[in-house]
Design brief:
The complex is a heterodimer of chains A (155) and B (521). Chain A has helices at residues 5-27, 36-53, 56-59, 65-88, 123-147. Chain A has 155 residues and is mainly α. In chain A, α1 (5-27) packs antiparallel against α5. The mean pLDDT of chain A is 88. The chains are: A mainly alpha (155), B mainly alpha (521).
């Protein structure tokens, strides 16, 4: 079941913007409302848009289950490894050892409100990215499995 | 390296099965042998970490682990008056549950390597199995009420997915949906209760909440909202209706671990009654509450089991019945908790019986479900009226089934006898009637399993099962592992009681000690 060309073109145009906005929510998770889960859900909304506009057969060429599964596993592994990284420094699981260290996520900041400096938060942005990738993969797979019920049976 | 591992055992307890689960989709793509090796490695490492942690707790006392702190044992950050971070508080009772979960998870994973090899979608199956193990280990190790809810949800969702794993003409899907729905409603009630407590006391840590609880009307509401879902999740009558469906349709290895998962809910129930509310409760009321739940579960469970024709459904009702013994033993302990003389005289023995029965039940009931799975694996049916004569072709499975059946019936020298004797002796001092009920239920259990044994293994060879052979090696090893533990805990129960059970009983009774451990007293 395909929708009209207008819907399909709109969905195609919207898709990259959806991804970009989702990515923005993920990246700014430690500064603004939202975070990994919300951003990942926004990105998966882009996938939902494509799925609604096209047929199941059309869409599986563009959104592959295998790739999405890899996304899911990679995101979860990133989260877990970020948590475990503290152990190597002799700190507990999930200890935020990157913050205030001057690295690319640990800019040294004064105590108080953050005016929008992205390179802060230490481990938190990494965890957000992990969750974001995982939710993108997981939710898209759920949507794909749900839409697979509409698959047209071959005569 | 080894000191680092010992220092971070509680974190590794969760991280190891999660690691195994999360990499499963990628490993699954690399081929069958890689996946098998990965599953085996994950299960073995998880069990090793669990047993090491338990050993650490039994030798050096409770282990605290604060996530994200500068130092894992620093429960009170800076000048804070109460613990704010998520922490694991592993005392002797948690360690007992970790030992149970570790032994059982290793055995069932080995078993499923062969038993499930013919199914499709295996990487999802194993990922879910590891998540279920994670949920159970987290529930028993955590010292934080909200964290408990999170792990409860993880184990419920993974459990529901596994129950529905074998699609089986929609029957399994229905059972899985039922399990998911009931778990979700139960978990929602738990969440509301946690919200009520958090709103009043600004704390989620079990010890911090226990030290502040005023037992207001809202606290009583929260108590009901916590106790009822957990009693449902452990399968106590009259909230046992989900157990027969779920236990029957899940793959046998999963059923064996669902038993452990329901015991983790039992742990939560005891933890909330003894540690969270503790001295605020009226002992007699809540003791008798557990006792009545226990007696109902024992009796109704076994009477429902006797007429069953499906072997796993029959065993599921027996699981309900055996949960009654645990509730009875620990309930008698709770009823006399205020009376020091009675507690020392028989209360602690009753609790030891109840907790030892948790351990024993996980082992022999796991073994029984695995043997039922082995018969299903070779014959393709669970119907007792159709089975027969398998003793000729599956002698080892028959031996393992006999060990499990005699243990569940409380026949010496198997482990069920050791814990049931403790329960009979001590409950008789409390109320002779209850002890008589417990013994009658044991006799009915024996009768029921004699029937099962007869209809599955005895009789002449049957033509339709001529192709049935002994099970493959990994299934055999999984069953043998549990059988050895059943035999060991039955032949020499003393070391088990002295080193595993008694510390757990003392930890459960000692509410002030638990609070003091967290607050660094």
């Amino acid at each position: 079941m395909k929708m009209t060309k207008i819907v399909r073109t709109t969905a195609d145009v919207f898709y990259p913007f959806c991804l970009a906005f989702g990515l923005y929510v993920v990246m700014h998770g430690h500064l603004t409302p939202g975070g990994g889960f919300q951003g990942g859900a926004v990105m998966a909304t882009g996938a939902a848009l494509l799925i609604v506009a096209r047929s199941y057969e059309d869409i599986t060429g563009r959104l592959r289950k295998g790739v999405l599964k890899v996304c899911e596993a990679t995101g979860l592994m990133l989260f877990l490894l970020a948590g475990l990284s503290g152990l190597l420094k002799g700190l507990p699981f999930m200890a935020n050892w990157l913050t205030q260290t001057g690295g690319w996520v640990g800019k040294v900041m004064e105590f108080g409100p953050n005016g929008g400096e992205l390179a802060t938060g230490g481990l938190i942005p990494l965890l957000n990215v992990g969750v974001g990738i995982e939710v993108l993969g997981g939710l898209s797979i759920i949507l794909l499995y749900m839409i697979s019920g509409t698959k047209e049976k071959k005569p | 390296m080894s000191t680092m591992i010992m220092r971070h055992l509680p974190a590794l307890l969760i991280a190891t099965p999660l690691f195994a689960a999360f990499l499963m989709p990628l490993v699954g793509a690399a081929g069958r042998w890689v996946r098998t090796a990965w599953v085996f490695l994950g299960a073995a490492l998880t069990a090793t970490v669990g047993l090491l942690l338990a050993w650490q707790v039994f030798t050096t006392g409770p282990v605290l682990y604060v996530f994200g702190a500068g130092d894992p044992t620093q429960t009170l950050p800076g000048d804070a008056a109460f613990p704010i971070r998520i922490m694991f508080a592993v005392d002797a009772l948690s360690a007992l549950m970790i030992v149970i979960a570790s032994c059982s998870s290793l055995a069932i994973t080995l078993y499923s390597l062969n038993a499930e090899a013919r199914q499709s979608g295996l990487e999802t199956f194993y990922a879910m199995l590891f998540l279920l193990v994670t949920g159970v280990l987290g529930m028993v190790a955590t010292g934080d009420l909200f964290n408990f809810f999170v792990f409860l949800e993880i184990s419920s969702l993974a459990g529901a997915a596994l129950v529905a794993y074998r699609i089986d003409e929609g029957v399994a899907v229905e059972a899985g949906l039922k399990y998911a729905l009931l778990s979700t409603v139960g978990a929602l009630a738990v969440l509301i209760a946690i919200g009520i407590l958090f709103a009043q006391y600004n704390a989620l840590n079990i010890a911090a909440l226990a030290s502040r609880l005023q037992f207001t009307v809202l606290d009583k509401v929260a108590l009901v909202l916590l106790v009822v879902p957990l009693a449902m999740k452990c399968g106590a009558v009259p909230m046992h209706f989900w157990t027969p469906d779920s236990y029957t349709t899940a793959p046998s290895s999963v059923t064996a671990f669902l038993v452990v998962s329901s015991q983790a809910s039992l742990y939560g129930l005891f933890r909330i009654l003894y540690t969270l509310y503790g001295s605020l409760l009226s002992w007699a009321t809540f003791g008798w509450f557990l006792i009545i739940l226990g007696v109902l579960s024992m009796f109704i469970g076994v009477t429902m089991a006797i007429p069953q024709k499906d072997v796993k459904r029959l065993m599921a009702y027996h699981a309900v019945s055996q949960t009654g013994y645990m509730l009875l033993g620990v309930g008698v302990g709770l009823a006399v908790l205020g009376n020091r003389a009675a507690l020392e005289e028989f209360g602690k023995t009753a609790m030891a019986g109840g907790l030892f029965h948790i351990f024993n039940h996980a082992m022999y009931k796991g073994l029984l479900f695995l043997t039922a799975g082995a018969v299903f694996y070779r014959t393709g049916t669970r119907n007792l009226n159709k089975l027969g004569g398998l003793g000729h072709t599956m002698p080892w499975t028959m031996v393992f089934f006999m060990i499990g059946a005699l243990a569940i019936a409380g026949v010496p020298p198997f482990n069920g006898f050791a814990s049931k004797l403790l329960i009979y002796e001590s409950v008789f001092r409390f109320s002779p009637f209850l002890a008589v009920v417990a013994m009658v239920v044991s006799i009915l259990t024996l009768a029921s399993f004699v029937k099962v044994f007869h209809s599955m293994f005895l009789g002449a060879r049957r033509a339709e099962y001529a192709a049935a052979r002994e099970v493959p090696a990994a299934m055999w090893v999984g069953m043998a592992l549990l059988a050895v533990v059943v035999m060991a805990a039955g032949l020499v129960p003393r070391p088990f009681i002295d080193h595993l059970i008694t510390p757990a009983v003392n930890a459960l009774c000692d509410r002030a000690g638990y609070i003091a451990t967290i607050f660094g007293g």
